[in-house]
Write a structure and sequence with these properties.
single chain; mainly alpha
């Protein structure tokens, strides 16, 4: 390897080496950031849990909204079919499936937010 110029690589400045490979760490790498005292760390963990819980609630609410809108469209289609006297069993099965998904989503949300 020395014949092709790869025997003695040039020295890399430690800050550049740490930037290129932060997982290596080394003696000059700064320690992982930690909050100064126990109460601050506890507050941060409580705030993080509250943020995760609220984001879960918002996602579940979004899913409920989308499923309910889809269910309303299906019920409207079923109403038109009943007016014509030709209800579709596949449409009824789809309505039941969507209703099951809405209920399952509500149950999961109530379990997760406790």
């Amino acid at each position: 390897m020395t014949a092709v110029g790869m025997g003695d690589p040039p020295v890399i400045e430690p800050s550049i080496a740490r930037h290129l490979s932060p997982g290596q760490g080394g003696l000059l790498a700064p320690p992982k950031p930690v909050l100064p005292n126990k109460m601050d760390r506890f507050s941060a963990s409580v705030h993080q849990a509250a943020y995760k819980s609220s984001s879960l609630a918002v996602r579940a609410l979004n899913v409920s909204y989308l499923l309910s809108a889809y269910q309303a469209e299906l019920l409207d289609d079923l109403g038109h079919q009943l007016d014509k006297g030709t209800p579709s069993p596949t449409l009824w099965k789809e309505i039941i499936t969507v209703n099951g998904l809405v209920l399952r989503n509500a149950r999961q949300l109530s379990w997760r937010c406790l």
